[in-house]
Amino acid sequence: MQFRLTPQRMLILKLLKKDTTHPSAEDVYKVAKKNFPNISFKTVYNTLQVLQDNRLIQELIIDRRKKRYCPDPKPHHHIICTECNKVVDVHLKFNTRLNEKRAEGFKITGSKVTFYGVCPECNMTV
Ligand SMILES: [Zn+2]
Ligand SMILES: [Zn+2]
Description:
This protein has 126 residues and is an alpha+beta fold. It has helices spanning 7-18, 25-35, 41-53, 120-125; strands spanning 58-60, 68-70, 77-81, 87-90, 114-117. The longest helix is centred in the middle third of the chain and has 13 residues, at 41-53.
């Protein structure tokens, strides 16, 4: 299937690029609705899937309540706040290579590290 960047897809991609909080589909939907009042949640959700399938964004499964989306498709790591579920990027090279013995026969193609912590805003109120 040929991928086309339709105006709606373009908008959702743009909204995501502007947002540094790694929003959920619900969050993207709320903002998208302001531009396309008739857009449905299903459309937003499906668009996020298409963008992810085409490697323009990446889906994060680090928030146990809902999927979050990152506008940067390149491999990087994340910190999630255990209080408010805010997610921020971590750009740092880790030596996460597995030696052959530890890889259990797998051909390793990537790795992601998720840090858990309390963000500065939450830290002040704890
Ligand atoms: Zn990210
Ligand atoms: Zn927080």
